[in-house]
């Protein structure tokens, strides 16, 4: 909330004062919708939980543990040293290499969680965290290839193409933005080793909390997408997209703007020739659900929502263009 409400002078104070009332309106509307059709939205919530348990949790939880162990034991520092000079050449902090590897292999929201942990340990400053947020917040290959590719589109090879375009869009744009910005500080700082308490228990419990949090986000926003569709909240977006795509694809893309996993599933069912490219845009941008998950971690490092969302939208558009040539 602090990041959202942050402003200067009288304007910032006014926004901070009225923000709770602005937030109350959609919350009351969602509550009314849940009471109006409880049988539909409890079923939708259950579908969201099942989607998380079947598609997201198996590809997320093991990597969450690996990320925590590598950071807590100090192994992340050792693994990042060989690429330290290369990171410095493109104005990234020394920990960027391991953060990129963990983010690219683990996927949402493990990359954002790793950035927050490294920032908390002093391995990077806010400037470096902003650059890492551009380049190290990617969707993992297990989810993209196995779940989206093989599970939704019926082709692991297509999933591999989507992941390649997705990762290229994230890394290329992230490197370009890093080079255009100033060099981050500190120039070098060892990632601290967690020697206090039961380190293994702490890593596993942290992974459990993060995985459950991701499930809560997915279930809530999956339900919210159904509410938005039922009450025609997505109608303007659907009509706008319908100017370019067919009706089924337009509705699926609008749904993906709220919850990415459900949006990709609907895109695969739409059978449009542009569905793979649009799925690439959707999983790269992330939708409201994934963006909120990531910002819940990244806000700790001083990263503002508006700039991060803009960058993710640009990366999604770049992924879409790349997939037009690849599929």
Write up this protein.
This protein has 327 residues and is mostly helical. The chain has one domain. Helix content is 78%, strand content 0%. The protein contains 17 helices and no strands. The longest helix is centred in the N-terminal third of the chain and has 36 residues, at 38-73.
Average pLDDT over all residues: 85
The gross shape turns out to be globular
Give helix and strand order, one letter per element, not per position: HHHHHHHHHHHHHHHHH
How widely separated are the two ends?
A: 41 Å
How would you describe the oligomerization state of the chains in this entry? single chain
Helix content: over 70%
Measured by DSSP, the beta-strand proportion falls in under 5%
The count of DSSP E runs of length 2 or more, i.e. the number of strands, is 0
Report the structural category.
mainly alpha
Q: Main β-sheet: number of strands, strand sense, barrel status?
A: none
Number of domains: 1
Radius of gyration, CA atoms, in whole angstroms: 20 Å
Low-pLDDT residue spans: 1-9
Number of helical elements:
17
